[in-house]
Amino acid sequence: MTNPESVVPAAGDYSKEEADEYHLTPAEADRLLANAKWRRFAVMGDSLAEGLGEESPGYRSVTWSDRTRDALIRRMPDLAFLNVGLRDLIASEVREQQLARVLEFEPDLVALVAGGNDLFRKDFDPADVEAELDQIVGPLRAAGADVVMFALMNISAAIPEVAALKPNMELLNARIRAVAARHGALLVDMWNHPGCASRDMFSSDLMHSSMRGHALLGAETIRRLGVYLASG
């Protein structure tokens, strides 16, 4: 269940967050989600789902999924929330370890972040990852849940040291887009977002989002949900 205290910002100086060109104000989020009726929100996947990331001075240390949850709670105060995200998992492990638990929760909205860790395997096969994602998204959609998927940010735009990963990241994103289209899932496509070029969107490990990156992803997730709600 949700913790009502989690939707109240902690005291502090968040001037950078409020002045950020990609910032989404609570009022804007409320407008976008005015027609939201989701009552059971689940998050699943790897470390980005779990919420890893270094602090960003001037930003709240609140993950993208918690930002999304908090905005939804303002619309539906009785929202139930489950996050089973866990670092280091590849797509097949997300399916094996998390899918049954999420289905048991009976969500009507699911956010899925998976596939990024597969990139670091010597036997990385985009087709295999696509098949695993199919086997996650298909059952969720069949159970009646709206599913949100994410195309990875182009971290090489800000960090040239990881440019070697770019071709495989593009291959993975193409498969993620294909799965989303096939199953009617919502896609938050971060690849060409201008924020990718900002080094402070990422943690010093060159893998995870910083809290500024989480703020950006939370804003774009809410915006995508808003577009979906406005469409019908």
TrEMBL record:
Coiled coil: none annotated. Keywords: Hydrolase. One of its GO terms (molecular function) is hydrolase activity. Pfam families: Lipase_GDSL_2. Residues 43-216 form the SGNH hydrolase-type esterase domain. PANTHER family: GDSL-LIKE LIPASE/ACYLHYDROLASE, PUTATIVE (AFU_ORTHOLOGUE AFUA_2G00820)-RELATED, GDSL-LIKE LIPASE_ACYLHYDROLASE, PUTATIVE (AFU_ORTHOLOGUE AFUA_2G00820)-RELATED. This is SGNH/GDSL hydrolase family protein.
